[in-house]
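Tutorial handout. Part one gives the primary structure; part two gives the three-dimensional structure as tokens.
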Amino acid sequence: MFGIQPRDVSDDDFNPRRRRWSLWTTPPASMPTTSHTSRPRKGHANAYHMSVKFEDLCGFMVEGNVDDVNVLNEVRERIREQGRVWWALEASKGANWYLQPRISSNGGQGVISVTSLKLSVLTNTVTLRRLIRKGVPPALRPKVWLSVSGAAKKRSTVPETYYDELIRATEGKTTPATRQIDHDLPRTFPCHPWLNSEEGQASLRRVLVGYSFRDSEVGYCQGLNYVAALLLLVMKTEEDAFWMLAVLLENVLVSDCYTDTLSGCHVEQRVFKDLLAKKCPRYFFPPSIFMLVFLSENHAVIVNYIRFSKWYRIAAHLEAMGFDVSLVATEWFLCLFSKTLPSETTLRVWDVLFNEGAKVLFHVALAIFKMREDDLLRIQHIGDVIDVLQSTAHHLYEPDELLTFAFDKIGSMTTNTITKERKRHETVVMAELDQRTRRLGSLKMDA
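Part two.
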């Protein structure tokens, strides 16, 4: 469909443990089924749009409007263009040009000097970062993700039979995690034909159950089903999806995001709240305002004007309203936007996530708020805030629009800064969780 076909992937290989299929043979998004309803597109100020059901670029049946279909067709063309760039680089630099070269230890042919190695790695890193932000072609995603995330390296540290043996060891065993997984499987993306099939759910179950046995501390947490399901669709084999899930939970994301207490998720949300206040600050004062305040005899009137004008920014406005970012951010951080954004937009976010780390989630979350800043400042009810943010995210079929906001209009944030913020909040979160545990224990004793 995209003019970019997987090189060594056969659609006829249906081994249930290593199932391979092509995601990119779905009908064009420009062939919608029109339903007889009309509704406003809440994420945009203009027009009423006819509601249509169509298949998106990853095979999900979704409901949107004609504008969404047109955007998807434009995105499909850009995917073709980006694919040509990647294939050209593979032709000129080699099939695995984005892999870090190794220094030969035996002095034989192909020795790379330390100087040339550093230059090569630096050049490739800059090129790769720029390319990945523009999107990885679907046919290359499995290989690129395995490489840049560290999943391939993690898998190389265990025997080749590790996954198969792990799955065999789980057969016939029942745990609290397996029971919850069985409960969640039918509810995991029922709008995708394969994931809603018996075969798809069996494949997803093996990946989730396998990881629950690999890491009993995490076991299984709701939200992982959506993450693993999308990984399965992209990676094309269970084993690759399993290792992507492993590197995600063990290396990419902050620790304890999916444990019983969700302490890591609580920390991330508090860091996000702080970032929202910094990136979308309480006030923005043009120089003329300072002069106006200085010259005015009634400072209170001027300050009150500033407070309720457009310069009264998102963080303060939402705080005054009593809005808690966890009302939307919990799902964003647990499901990594897989339930929030359109599938191809989610995959574009994940392209960058696996290459640059968890700070990408903050960039994207801030971008969604920033994109609707003017509308959010006019809203006076918490429910309307949630509705605007959800509607905006659901209609972001244009990945470049979101990622441009995320990386060009939010500003930089270093990993070191985020790490310091996490450590500061972690102490508070752990103390609160400990206090809650003791309080619950006391209530049980009294009962």
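Part three, for discussion. Residues 359 and 414 are 8 Å apart (CA to CA). The chain is about 60% helix and 5% strand.
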